[in-house]
Amino acid sequence: MNIFRLAGDMTHLFSVLVLLLKIHTIKSCAGISLKTQELYAIVFTTRYLDLFTTYISLYNTIMKLIFLGSSISIVWYMRHHKVVRRSYDKDQDTFRHYLLMLPCLLLALLINEKFTFLEVMWAFSLYLEAVAILPQLVLLQRTRNIDNLTGQYVLLLGAYRALYVLNWIYRYFTEENYVHWITWVSGIVQTLLYADFFYYYFQSWKNNVKLQLPA
Amino acid sequence: PKDQAAKDEL
């Protein structure tokens, strides 16, 4: 495992921790899109079906279980916890996320590495992950005040994606037969979706003003 | 094997 991959996994882990911190200690999910969180829960459930079929490493298994468990518990908290759910911006979080799932499924049926159930689900999870952040970005744009933890959460997620792109470049040049078009294209699309947010985040950081996205 | 390589990522 190279440094970019490890750093990518760690920023992903931190992003989840930041979100759990917000939910557990502040008992708030204000500014967090339940739609995006539901999509992530589906992404990890469909991608990590290979937990039952393939053993890669202890690290791999533990990380998969963490991402599965945390994404499902975040959805549970936002929907059912009696305090946390009251802070959910339901009226602002109106992105029709289920409409993203059908095109991703069709694409996965058409473009996959092998036409088997696990491979189609794996491709589906990659396509869906690429667009899963959209409801969150729309919600950020609508929310007047973006609090620090929410901003950091999205920043860490974006950093995780960018580091994965560096990891692929590194692996391409150092490993033989390392070519994965499906992962790369959907991963690059996903990273580009963060570009706009990055721009405004660093502007606000540089000028030392509160993060606000233009309407 | 080729199939395995992508699956070692999260």
TrEMBL record, chain A:
Keyword Transmembrane helix: yes
Cell compartments where the protein resides: Endoplasmic reticulum membrane
Keywords in alphabetical order: Endoplasmic reticulum, ER-Golgi transport, Membrane, Protein transport, Receptor, Transmembrane, Transmembrane helix, Transport
Single GO biological process annotation from the record: protein transport
GO molecular function list: ER retention sequence binding
One of the record's GO cellular component terms: endoplasmic reticulum membrane
Region forming the signal peptide: none
Transmembrane regions listed in the UniProt entry: 55-77, 98-115, 121-140, 152-170, 182-202
Membrane topology type: Multi-pass membrane protein
Lineage: superkingdom: Eukaryota
PANTHER family from the UniProt entry: ER LUMEN PROTEIN RETAINING RECEPTOR (PTHR10585)
Homology family: Belongs to the ERD2 family.
Name of the protein described by the UniProt record: ER lumen protein-retaining receptor
